[in-house]
Amino acid sequence: MNSINLADAKAHLSELVALAEAGEDVCIMRRGKPVARLTSAGAPKKPVSLAELRAVTEAMVPQAEPAGDFMRRLRDESRY
């Protein structure tokens, strides 16, 4: 893990972001103590297969009332 003080981090932020994007962690220090860590945001999510989504949703039982009405009813019946 790379360590850098806060003043240098401000001056070289784009370089530090490039390092984090490449998978390296960067520790930002203030007066010799770690205060922040710059890491990669992670891998992008894979696209959803429409065929798999249909297979899952077709197996679901349809509900008697819309979700919004159901939640309103739960909220209103539970008051006081």
UniProtKB/TrEMBL annotation:
<dbReference type="InterPro" id="IPR051416">
    <property type="entry name" value="phD-YefM_TA_antitoxins"/>
</dbReference>
<dbReference type="Pfam" id="PF02604">
    <property type="entry name" value="PhdYeFM_antitox"/>
</dbReference>
<protein>
    <recommendedName>
        <fullName>Antitoxin</fullName>
    </recommendedName>
</protein>
<dbReference type="InterPro" id="IPR036165">
    <property type="entry name" value="YefM-like_sf"/>
</dbReference>
<comment type="similarity">
    <text>Belongs to the phD/YefM antitoxin family.</text>
</comment>
<dbReference type="InterPro" id="IPR006442">
    <property type="entry name" value="Antitoxin_Phd/YefM"/>
</dbReference>
<comment type="function">
    <text>Antitoxin component of a type II toxin-antitoxin (TA) system.</text>
</comment>
